[in-house]
Structures are given as structure tokens and as C-alpha cells.
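As a warm-up, study this chain.
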Amino acid sequence: MFTSRFALTLSLLLTLPLLLFFFFPAIYPHKNLPGRDELDDLALFRRASAARSPSRAFPLSRGAASSSARSFPAKFARLGSRTSRPKIAFLFLTNSDLYFSPLWEEFFSGHSRFYNIYIHADPSSKFAPPDGVFRNRLIPSKKTERASPTLIAAARRLLADAILDDPANFYFALVSQHCVPLHSFRYMYNALFGNSISAFNAYIDPGKYKSYIEILSDEPNLYERYTARGEDVMLPEVAFEQFRVGSQFFMLAKRHASLVLEDRKLWRKFRLPCLNKECCYPEEHYFPTLLSMSDPKGCSHYTLTRVNWTGSFDGHPHLYQPEEISPELVHELRQSESNYSYFFARKFSPECLEPLMKIADNVLFKD
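Now compare it with the structure written out below.
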């Protein structure tokens, strides 16, 4: 009898920590305690951070690789199509159908060895996964909403899944269901990597490749955005002088994607709830601030996604309508003051698909 009671008491003592681990956050949701969803994300991010980097797939030293540059194409080809050249991972973040999937199909056509697609679709919305290159590219997704850190979490999930899925993924382009390409895939790939010899450098010297993300420090309502969670809430991790804003949509090099997944310090601040939701756009603050504090010289400080904020309403940019679609508009949207012309543009209404498809071959993808 005594032995049975002792065994029962011991079992309860051993079980108590597990019960507290799973149920304490629900009973007492302290702002610094991660919930179950975040614990799932953290496990995913740890796996992605521990994943092999693409450079380890090529056991050449920097010197040996440089001396073998002339014979590189033949050697590289023998390593297999999955890792023969660095790839671009397209991360679709959406809460509705991918209206422009036929246009993206044309964009990707003939380049299957050089890209991957991943979709994070809000499970609370109606979403019909498209066929073709988008088939079976939906990752485990969670609810997203404006003025909350959920869009940051969704982007991080996309980055983690892409890193785990294919070690050859080198650039990670975050786009939405309202984004359309402004150039051909070949144009974009060559602009980023150059020819096959140059592309090999992505594995040898990844640090020379920048991330394309908007980082701004002179926005007129910067302080209101900084204090959206409370006057001193961001301190001491993020001083006002370190706080940055920028476009939600970016193209990150792999080293910066990994940095985003490994971050815990800033995330503890940016996942806190917003008090002033009119000035709170966490997804436009977190990534620019983190990368500005971590590696400002490794970032372009500009985005490759064109957005028209003329006549914006309630935080949404101009929404293009079918009657606005023309070759002249495409040429205008491509224009940039940076080193590259814009690769993508948003925001387009679903009805724009037909007129865009009509000019796809002769305008959009002819460059």
C-alpha cells in the first residue's frame, strides 16, 4: 500500500512540470511567455537554423574553387539539378486565392531548376490552391491579421520551410496575392546572379550578395510607430534611434533569412500587442529594424517591389484596375532610382489578370 502511494505521488510530481508547461500560458498569459503556436514555430526555426547550408554541398575550399573556375560548369553539372545553381524561393503570403497564378505560371515557364514556390494561406480564409507549379506548395499556415505580429510570424514560417525544403534556395522573395512580375524570370535571375560562373560565387562567397529590403529612418510618423506598443516598451533592446520602417515585401539572401529565424531578442518586443493600431504595422518594422541593427551594409535599403502610395486609403496603396493596364504602365512601374529596375509591383485587382495576360509575352516578359 505504501509503495503504491509513493509511486502515485512520484508520478504526480513528475507530471506537474509538464502540465505547467502546456497549460500555464493559457491560465496566465504573461506577455513574455510563448504560447503553443509560438513553441511550434520555435521548433521549426531551430530545425531550419540547424539545416545544412548550400555551401556545404560543395566540399571545395575558397582557393580550390577559384582555381577551378574555368572547369566549373562541367564539375557543377555533375552535382545534380537540385543543387546545380542557386535558386530563388518565392514566398506567397496570402489571405485569399492567388488570382494571378496563370501569369506567374508564364513567368516561371521553362525555369523549373532555378526556383521553388511556398504558400502561406490564412486557414480562416477561403483559399483554393491553384494547379500547375503551385500544386502541393502550401505550407502549414496560421491565421494572420493586420496590426499584429502574425504577419511577421507567417513570413518567418515561409523562410523556415523554404530553407528546410531545398538547401539550394539562396534568395527568398516575399510576395502577396496582389503582386505581379514586371520582368521575365531570366532577366531577374541574371540580374541577381549573372552567368553560371558568377552564380557559383553565391556558394563560395555568399557575403557579397545583398538583401533587397527597404530600410528607412526618416518617416514623418516614425515616433508614433515606435511607441505604438507603449512609451518605453521597446527599450532596452531597440532604442528609438535604431528603429526603422520599410516595405513588407523583400528579397532576403540566405544568411539574412537565417538571421531572422535565429532572432529571439527583438522578436520578444515586436510580438507584443499594439495599443495604437493606427500606427502599428509590425511587419513593416521588424525586418528593417533587425537587419539594420545586424548587417546594414549587407542590405540594399531599397525594395524591388513597386508600390503606388498615391491616393492610399486606410494603410492600403493604390489598387490598379483593368482600364489602367497598358505597356506604358509596365514601363513606368519598372523605373527605379536604385541599381535595379523593379522586379514586382502591387497592388492589382483580380480583374487585371486578363489585360495583363494579353501583354505578358510582348511586354512583361520581353526584356
